[in-house]
Amino acid sequence: MRMRMIIIYFDMKINTIFIMMRYIFFITCFALSQFFLANCEESQDSSKIVIAGGSLTEIVYFLDYSDKIAGIDVTSNYPSDTANLPSIGYVRALSTEGILSLKPTLILGEDDMGPPLVIDQLKLTGVDLRIIDEGHSANGILQKINCISSVLGVNTDLSSSKIELLEQDINKLNILAMDNQNSKIKVMLILNMQGTSPIVAGKGTSGDGFIKMTGAVNVANNFEGWKPISSESIISYNPDFIIITNRGMGSFPDTKSLSETTALRFTDAAKKQNILSEDGMAMLGFGVRTIGAALEFAKTFQQ
After folding, report:
1. Handedness of CA 97, 102, 104, 110 (dihedral sign)
2. I want to staple 72 with a disulfide (CB 3.0 to 4.6 A). Which of 76, 103, 178, 280 is the partner?
3. Strand residues in 99-257 grouped as ranges (E)
4. What is this structure's pTM?
5. Same domain, yes or no, for 175 and 237?
6. What is the pLDDT of residues 142-190, one digit of tens each?
7. For strand 69-72 and strand 49-52, is the pairing parallel, antiparallel, or unpaired?
């Protein structure tokens, strides 16, 4: 009898714990959904926008709301008209005073906007601050565009027509990416050069996401983050294609001289002259241009 009562007691305890866990899970999901909904809901006043993040600036231009921009960070260098806008500094090293001096009614920031102290100070001022979620994929770009469109209160028909054009390119990209996956094309993406050592995109980076968009394989998927790699690693990776940012080219006049003076010359990519350069923000910013850049590289990989 006593044993039976003990079993019943523990059974009730387990059921109680299970119910509490379900309740906590529900509350957490609800809170997260409310957070993301609130972060993308329409701003009460978007007449003066300050932007910290090049991809967000591209999207605001894409949505034809550039006349509302009051200031941008230094990564916001596209389109060329951005050169005429006031600068608030580097996206990760902003100052509260510099931003507030432009008297913004809305601040849009990428998820690496900082430092954290500045974000905390901006929240205390009551200015509408939106940190936009980042996803290193075509869908992530579309979500970012939809979010900003909602925040700015862009006409639904206008935003839908623009997004439809992007979706056409994404569909083309997906078809090419599937072919490239079957071919198992190996790609190395270089951010810049540290002497003769390339700083390469590992797992979880924007470079890794970009390579995946094209359907190719990131050869440096055995580590996380951006890291310099040795000559031995370059040779062992032996990529079919090497992509380097224009800024990463640095003092090298062209990709041929880059390959001839570094260990890259031992790779199949160099031997077949498959070293390509592109604007870093176009590839790695995950704004509107990233879809077009991925599409062009996906085509190139099939030639």
Report:
1. negative
2. 76
3. 106-110, 128-132, 186-194, 197-201, 217-218, 226-228, 241-245
4. 0.86
5. yes
6. 999 999 999 999 999 988 999 999 999 999 999 999 999 999 999 999 9
7. parallel
How far is Cα 108 from Cα 215, in angstroms, rounded to an integer? 31
CA dist., res. 33 & res. 248, Å (int): 40
Identify the pLDDT of residue 158.
86
Contacts of residue 57, Cβ cutoff 8 Å, sequence gap at least 6: 51, 69, 72, 76, 78, 82, 287
Q: Are 53 and 82 in contact (CB under 8 A)?
A: no
204, 275: one domain: yes
Q: Band of the pLDDT at 50, cuts 50, 70, 90?
A: very high
- Structural domain including 100 reads 49-132
Q: How many residues would you count in the chain?
A: 303
Find the mean pLDDT for residues 134-148: 97
Does residue 32 lie in a domain region? Answer: no
Distance CA 134, CA 189 (A): 20
The arithmetic mean of pLDDT across residues 260-287, rounded, is 96
